[in-house]
Design brief:
Virginiamycin B lyase, Methylamine Dehydrogenase, Chain H, WD40/YVTN_repeat-like_dom_sf, lyase activity
Length: 298
């Protein structure tokens, strides 16, 4: 077992709320600040920079797009945003009012796919801003995070429907109910093993679903840890945040879990990514990014 070194880097004031983080094409970390309405950038070892948006727009998830820019959701303003690595911002208003976009991911078709939590829809936006929406059937489902699967589809968590969904490039939706009732899945990510991994915030579990829909769930040591975000690491493991437990955890493909306490109490870890330096980085809502690596960085 390799020792994990955790370092925290203050990137904003406590009220700004760093929420999600991703690795950009420029080798920097890009992150949203949900409370202050900003997008931040941090080159490991450097100083953070901040780009202001509408202060009340509520930027949430951010990802690298196929066009060399960063794309993000504006949950409160009901828009999709795009920011270049130079800091130029363009925002796209969505067709459905008050739809609450949350998750976003680049698809295999060269477009960005996103969830509309308040409208029970999956959206698709091209890099020139053309939007298509696909309605989900059934009762209130609250689609949250979304990821591109290894099978050519987009996979997403249905938080209130207690299921994992898949949408094909033709708009066909398949829903896979979870074995655990009221598990409330949130984060999803595709693993190196070709399966989609997800976290169950209400059940304190990590789940794995294969392209054919076979599901396995792994209970965490602290079932009250409220896992929130998940990402594939560079070591073949999946890494996840425990928002309620103030921890970062890893899980191997066969379900072995290891957890690491964050140095600052109640730091509220949310988004997580495999960083440009090979370490795992997470956004702490209390104003910092945390780095987990095998060696410290000055």
């Amino acid at each position: 077992m390799t020792a994990v070194v955790i370092q925290e880097y203050v990137v904003a004031d406590v009220g700004s709320g760093p929420y999600a983080v991703t690795t950009g094409p420029d080798g920097a970390l890009w992150f949203t600040m949900v409370h202050s309405g900003e997008i931040g950038r941090l080159l490991p070892g450097g100083e953070p920079t901040r780009h202001g948006l509408d202060p009340g727009c509520g930027p949430t998830i951010i990802v690298a797009g196929p066009d060399g820019a960063l794309w993000f959701t504006e949950y409160r303003a009901h828009r999709i945003g795009r920011i270049t690595t130079e800091g130029s911002v363009h925002e796209f208003t969505l067709p459905t009012p008050d739809c609450g976009p949350f998750g976003i991911a680049a698809g295999p078709d060269g477009a960005l796919w996103f969830t509309e939590t308040a409208a029970d829809r999956i959206g698709r936006i091209t890099t020139d801003g053309h939007v298509t929406e696909f309605a989900l059937q059934g009762t209130r489902s609250f689609p949250s995070a979304i990821t591109a699967g290894a099978d050519g589809g987009m996979w997403f968590a249905l938080n209130q429907a207690n299921a994992i969904g898949r949408i094909g490039m033709d708009g066909t939706v398949t829903v896979h109910p979870l074995p655990t009732e009221a598990a409330a899945p949130v984060g999803v990510a595709t693993g190196h093993d070709g399966a989609v991994w997800f976290v169950e915030i209400a059940a304190g579990q990590v789940g794995r679903i294969t392209p054919d829909g076979a599901i396995v769930e792994f209970p965490l040591p602290d079932r009250a840890g409220r896992p929130h975000g998940i990402t594939a690491g560079g070591d073949g493991e999946m890494w996840f945040t425990e928002w309620g437990g103030n921890r970062i955890g890893s899980i191997t493909p066969d379900g072995v879990v290891e957890v690491h306490d964050l140095p600052t109490p109640r730091s509220e870890p949310h988004g997580i990514t495999h960083g440009p330096d090979g370490a795992v980085w997470t956004a702490l809502e209390t104003g910092a990014l945390a780095r987990l690596g095998s060696t410290p960085v000055a």
